[in-house]
């Protein structure tokens, strides 16, 4: 067994493999200590008699640990360790200690942690945390904006044009039309007649997109992506976007849609859930039912009147509104939700499922472009 392979197994198996696999190099011992600092606090370890690493005895602080993993592990592993620290073991110093915040590289897991703990932060820490939020949100917006542009600006009709412009060069038609001028000896196609196409703009009638987002703690990922999605849809021709957050209360955040960072910093996570109340509020915003998409983003665990919720959704569907009941709106689109309530909403005509933000943008573009 090669030394790297032996050390890898030693890191996996912990101290119990010390006798059979031997010791660790200095770098591997550092990795072992960093892993043990985090995973050694797992309450199940004693019961399961599983690895206890830490061959390099150390009383690491959070700052020391963060500096160590950044030096010892690849970026993907660092992000996983940070995510486990805040989400699995509740080590909030990663996002509430200014010394730590100054060192971390922003990523979605830390964004979620900031939004969960921002009420614990003093003004200095909140300022640092806001910079982390800005960085991650900007990255999310940039990724989704590309999907939105593709969904809304793709050419729906390509007609021949005499107007020659490089970006409208029709490669396939040009090749087909000039195949007779292929020179095998030169391995070159001589283009005698280039072809171009014109892009026809879609006629866009005014549409409303109303996002109703459950801000309970379990829906945090969807809250983040709803804010980013609303920001990307904001200002598109033919689309008027609303964003409404709810728990037992309903808060219309539409005035902040163009600033998703400010919007997320205002979100108050937790509390109960009154979905019916949110849907009733959204129904009041509808101007032209047949030109409206209501996207209800929730886990459908109704703390209010489930019957009222079903009746409100049924009314929206019957008047011609497109109702999406989304159990998740995030990059994984991996939902956990009350299936019984979701089935009742599907039975009255809502489209129930989960979407990535890009899929929602494509859905909106498809209907707006009709």
Widest β-sheet, arrangement of strands: 7-6-5-8-9-10
> How would you characterize the largest beta sheet?
6 strands, mixed
Overall spatial form = flat
In CATH terms, the superfamily of the largest domain is: von Willebrand factor, type A domain
What percentage of residues falls in helices of 4 or more residues?
40-55%
- Give the C-alpha Rg: 27 Å
Which architecture of the largest domain per CATH?
Answer: 3-Layer(aba) Sandwich
CATH C-level name of the largest domain: Alpha Beta
Number of helices: 17
Uncertain segments of ≥5 residues (pLDDT<50)?
A: 51-58
Helix and strand succession? HHHHHHHHHHEHEEEEHEEHHEHEHEH
Terminal CA distance: 63 Å
Question: What features would you describe in this structure?
Answer:
- There is one protein chain.
- The chain has three domains: 3-133, no CATH class; 158-199, no CATH class; 207-368, Rossmann fold (3-Layer(aba) Sandwich), CATH 3.40.50.410.
- It is built from 17 helices and ten strands.
- The strands form three sheets. The chain has a six-stranded mixed sheet, sandwiched between helices.
- It has helices spanning 3-13, 18-21, 26-39, 44-48, 62-72, 75-88, 93-96, 98-101, 108-117, 123-153, 171-177, 220-233, 260-266, 275-285, 306-318, 339-347, 357-368, and strands at residues 158-161, 182-183, 188-189, 196-199, 207-214, 239-246, 250-252, 292-297, 322-329, 351-355.
- Helix 15 (306-318) links the parallel strand 8 and strand 9.
- The protein has 370 residues and is an alpha/beta fold.
- Helix 9 crosses helix 10 and helix 12 (220-233) packs antiparallel against helix 13 (260-266).
- The termini are far apart.
- It comes from Micromonospora marina.
- Residues 206-365 form the VWFA domain.
- It holds the Pfam family VWA_CoxE.
- This is VWA domain containing CoxE-like protein.
- InterPro entries: LolB, Uncharacterised_CoxE, VWF_A, vWFA_dom_sf.
